[in-house]
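Ticket reopened. Same input as before:
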Amino acid sequence: MPIFFRLKIFPAILALSALMTGFSLPVAAEDFNLAGLVRRVEQQYTGQSSISRVEMDVVTGHWERHLTMESWSLGRERFLIRILSPAKEKGVATLKVEREVWNFLPKVDRVIRIPPSMMGGAWMGSHITNDDLVKANHIDEDYHFTLLAETAEQWTIEGIPRPDAPVIWGKIIYQVRKEPLVPIQIEYYDEEGVLVRRILFDDVQTIGERTVPLRMTVLPLEKPDEKTVMHYRDLQFDVELSEDFFSLAELKRRR
Amino acid sequence: MLYQLALRNIWRNRRRTLLTLSAMVVSSALLILSLGIFSGMLYDMLASATEQYYGHMVISAKGYQDDRDMFLNFSLTTPLEQQLERKEILGYSPRLRGFGLLSHDQESAPGEILGVKPALERGVTGLADALTAGSYLETGDRNGVVLGSGLARRLKVVPGDELVFVTQAADGSVGNDLLEVRGIFTTGDVGHDNALALVPLPWLQNVIALPERIHEIAVRTDQPLNVAALAREFRARLPSGLEILDWGEMLPEMREVVASYDVSRLIIVIILYIATALGILNTFFMSVMERTREFGVLMAIGMKPGQVRRMVLLETFFMGSLALVCGVLLGLGLSLYMAEVGIDLSGTLTPITYAGGTILPRLHAVIEPGNVYIPASCLLVISLLAGFLPANRAARMQPVVAIRED
Amino acid sequence: MALIELKTVSKIYTLGSQEVIAVKDFSLQLEKGEFCVLAGPSGSGKTTLLNLIGCLDQPSAGEVWLEGRNVATVPAKELAAIRLNKIGFIFQSYNLIPVLTAAENAEFTLMLQGMDKKVRREKVRRWFVDLGLEGLEERKPSDLSGGQQQRVAIARAMASDPAVILADEPTANLDSQTSEELLAVMQRLNEERGATFVFSSHDPLVIAHGKRVVRLVDGHLESDQCVS
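Engineering reply: fixed in the latest deploy. New output:
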C-alpha cells in the first residue's frame, strides 16, 4: 500500500531562483553555447544578489489562495523567503543554504530541517516541487543540450539527461527569446516521455540592467484546472547582502 | 469375538506395536503442532494487518483507499453510528489521516498521522498492547502522540519529548502544531513502525483544517475470516458516497494467502503422512506374514477370506484410532503450550512483512478445528489404507500352503 | 451313500520344474461313524489325502464327494462354509490361536457359525467337562501342556458338530502316555457319540487304535483292513 505524501512544503527554490536569476544580458556571439545559454536561463543570478516581494496565487480543485512573500537571494546557494500574508501564515519562512533547507513555523516557534526524503514535496501548496529546485540548480551539468530549432526571434533547446545523472525529468524543452534574452516557455517530460508540466513566462520588464519576465505560470498538465502563478514585485538586483544574512537566526525573525 | 481377537493381536508384539504407535502418535501430534504454528503465523500476519492498522473492515468515501486523497472525507452521522451498533461488531474507530513531516530538534521524518478517539481505537487495533515505552493516548488528551519505534528512533524522541507536525492543510495553508510524545509502539511491521503515529482526532482535525470530518471508520468484527458476508450486508445500507471494504479487498494478497492455506495444509499433511503410512504398512505386513500359519488354520477351520480381511483391517483401525486419540491429545497439548507460552525468536530473526501482514519472529500456535481433524482423519484413512494391502494378502492365502509355513 | 468318497483321485504338485506325484489314482469310501487311520511313512500322501477330504485342496484328477456332493462343483466361497460346518480339524501342532483363551479357542468355530454367545459358552463348558479340561477355560494355550492343548483342539473340532473330524498326526508331538489318553478320548467320542474320525499317522499307537487301517505307499493304496 503506497503512502502518498501530499505534503506541500517548500523547496520550489529552484524555480524561484530560475525566475530571479535574471534572464537578461545579451549573449555575445562568440561565447554562445547551449549549456551556457540554459545556465543563464536557470541560474543567471549566480554571484548576484536580490531582494523582492512576490505574490503567489495557487489554484487547485479544492481551494485557491493568495500569498505575499518577501525573499532574499545570494548566488545560487543561498535563499530566504518569508510569508507576509495571509495573517494565519505570516512569518512562515524557508531558508536554503547549499543543500540544506529549513522551515520556520512561527505558530510553534520551531525550525524544521527538511530531510532529503521530503525534497520531493511541493512548496507552500504550489505546483512547484522541491526537487525541481535543488536539481534545477544543476540542470546545465546534468543534461545534454541540443538546438532543436532556431528562428530570428528564438531558440528551441532540448535537454536530455546525461547517463547516471540524478534527475527526475526525462526531457526538458526550453523556448528562449533572443532579444531580449528571456525564456518564454519550459516544458517538462517525465521518463515515459509524457509532457507533464509547462511553465510560461511573461510580463518582461527591465530592472536596472537586466530584462526579466516578472510573471511565471506553472501548469501541471495532468490537472488542467490547477495552476500556480508567481508574480514578482519590487525586484531589486545587486543589493548589499552577505552570507551571514542567510542564517537560522534570520529565518526565525518575525516581522 | 472378532473385535477381541483383533485387539489382542495388536498387543502380541508389544514392542513393535508401541514403536509403530509412537511413530503414528508423534507424527500426528507434530503435524497438529506445526499446522497450529502455521496458523499462528497466518493469524499473526492477518492480525498485524487488520488488528494493528486496518481493522477487519473499513468504511470510507468512495475511492479514498485507492490514493488516500484527503478531500475524500465525511462526517460520522448518528444513523451511521446506529448501524455500527450490532453484536458482530466488537468495535469501530473513526479516523482522520494526514501525511506530513514530523520533526524534533535537528531530526525530521515523514509520517502518517492517524487522528483517533483513543478509547474507540483501542476497540479496533491492538497498538495499545504493542507499546514498548510510555503509555497510550488517554481520552481527552489534547496533543499527545503515540508513534512507531522506528519513527521514534529516527526522530530521537522518548516519551515526554515534543514533536512538530507540519503538513499542508485542506485549505492549502501550512498546517502545523506541537505534539507531546506519550508512548512508542513496536508492531514488527516495519512500514508502520517507521511511519505511523496516532494523535487525538480533534487535534488533527484542527491542524489539517477538516473540523468534524473523518476519512474512515475502521471496524473490528467477531469473525475476521467471514467478514465478507457482513461487509456485503453493510454495503447495501451505506449512505451514498460511502463504501465498505473488508480486509480481503484491502489486502488481496493476504486473502490469497489465507485461501491457499487450506490447500497447502492438505499437501503438507499428505507429504508428512506418506512416510508414516510406509512405516505402518511395513509393520502390518510383518505382522501378517508372521501369522501366515495362523491365518491358514483360521481359514481351515472355516473362517471366510472376508472375515480374515476384516480382522486385519480392524487391527489397523484400532491402532489408528488409538494413535489418533493419543496423537490428538499430545498435539493439542503441545499446541496449547505453544499458544499460551510459545517460543520467542526475536533474538535471532527479524519480522518478515509479506502480503501486507507481518510474520512475527516467534513460534506461536493457534488451535483451529481444521488443524486437528484434518490430520486426525487422514491418520485414520492412511492406517486403513496401509492395512488394506496386508489384509488382502492375508485373505488371499491358501490354507494348505499357509498351514505348512513355519 | 458314503459319507466321503474319493474316486480315482490324483494330486500332483509342481515343485520348481519337478512334478511330485503325492497321490495317484486313489479311491476310498468312508462311512459315518468310522474310526479310520491313513497309515504310511512320511511322503506317502496321507496328509494330502486329509487335505483333499477337508476341502483344503482340490485334486488334480478324480473326484471328492462329501455327503453325496462333488466338492469340485462347490463354489470357492462355499468351501469355507463346508469346512466350518462339516469338518473338524485337529493338527499335529495343535494350532490353537495364541491370543485366545482355551474356552475362546473352542468357541471360535461356534462364533463363526453365528451361534449365540450364551449358547456357545454353555456348549463349550460341557465339552470341557467331558474332555477333562475343567478349570482351564481361561488359560492361554501357551500355559497349557501339549496334551491339554490337543484336548482343546478336540473340543474346538467337536463343538461345531462336524460330519467328520480329520486329525493329522495328532500325537506326533506328545509322549506315549498322553497319546494313549488322547486316543482313548477320541475313541470314546467315536463310540459314545458316533463321531467319525479320520487320522493320518505313522504312529504305531494310533494305528493300533484304528478300527480301519488304510496303508499308503508312495501315494498308492497298499492295503485297507478293518480291525474288529
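Helices of chain A lie at 13-20, 34-43, 130-136, 139-142, 248-251. The CA atoms of residues 2 and 117 of chain A lie 15 Å apart. Please confirm and we'll close it.
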